[in-house]
Amino acid sequence: MRKNAMLLLPALAAMAMLTGCASEPQIRVAPPSLQVADAELASGLSDSALQVTRSILEAHPRDIPALLKQGAILLAMGNPEEAAECYRRAEDIAPGNPATLASLGRLQLALGHEKAAEATFRKLLAVSPNDTAAQNDLGIALDMQGDSSGAQAAYRTALRAAPDDRAAKINLGLSLAISGHGEEALDVLRPLAASPGADRRLQHNLAAAFVAAGNQDAARQILAADLAPAEVAEAVQGYNSLTPAVAPDAAASPVLPTGYDTSPAARVDSSARAGLHVLAAP
C-alpha cells in the first residue's frame, strides 16, 4: 500500500501543476515583427507601422533593423530630423554598420548636407569597398559640391564593378553634361533613353545633355512632347545654367541650383530645379 502511495505522488503533483496552469494562465505577449510594419506600410498605414517599430524598440532598444525601419517611416512621413536621430542612434549602437551609413548618407543628401554625406559614404566605402550603390551616392554628393571630376570617378568605379548599373550610368551622363562634356554625355544617355521602358524623366535628362552639347533644337523637340512652349523655353534656360560657360577642362566648376533634389521620385520639371540625378537602389 505504501508503494502504491509513493507511485501516486508524482501523478498528483503533475495534476496540481496542470490545475494551477489552468486557473492562472501565463501569457507572454511578444512585440510585433518588422513584417507587420511592412504589411501596414503596404496598406498605407504609416502611423500603425511607426507604432509597430516603437513597440519593438520598447522591448529591444538596440534593434538596428527596427531603428532603420523607424527612420525610413519617419522620413516618408516628412520628419527628416527625427529620422536622422534614429540613424544616429543606430550608428552609436553599431558603428560602421553599412545599412545604417547608407540610410544616414542618403538622408544627408536629401537635407542638402552634401559634405556630411560625402564623409558618410567614404566611411561606408571604407568598410564595404565593393558597394556600388555607395560609390554612386558618393558621386552624387561630390557632384552637388561642384566636384564633377571626383563624381565621375566614383560613377566609373561603380560601373567597373556593375556595368549594367542604370543609376550610375544616368548619373555619369548627367555629370558629364553639367561639366561641359556634352558629346560624352550623349554617348552615355542616348542608349538609355532609347531602351524599353525609358520614362519621360530620362528623356528630359537626354534633353539636358543635348543642351550641353550645343544642340538646343534636339532638346526642345524632346521636351515639347510633354511641356508647353513656355515650359520648354524655361527648361532649356535652366539646363543652360547647369553647364559651365567655360572650356570643359577649365578650373571652374558648375554650381548646382538651389533645391537640387536627389530623391528617386524627383522629376526634372520645367524650371530644371528638380533633381537630375537618381539614387541607386538600396
Shape: globular
Q: What sequence of helices (H) and strands (E) makes up the elements?
A: HHHHHHHHHHHHHH
CATH superfamily of the domain at 35-95: Tetratricopeptide repeat domain
How large is the count of helical segments?
A: 14
Instruction: Find the CATH topology of the domain at 35-95.
Output: Serine Threonine Protein Phosphatase 5, Tetratricopeptide repeat
Write down the overall mean pLDDT: 80
Q: Which strand-content bin applies to the residues?
A: under 5%
- CATH top level label of the domain at 35-95: Mainly Alpha
Description:
- This protein is mainly α.
- The protein has a domain at 35-95: Alpha Horseshoe (Serine Threonine Protein Phosphatase 5, Tetratricopeptide repeat), CATH 1.25.40.10.
- 66% of the residues lie in helices and 0% in strands.
- It has helices at residues 2-23, 34-42, 46-59, 64-76, 80-93, 98-110, 114-127, 132-143, 148-161, 166-178, 182-193, 200-212, 216-223, 229-242.
- The longest helix has 22 residues, at 2-23.
- Mean pLDDT is 80; it is low at 3-28 and 246-282.
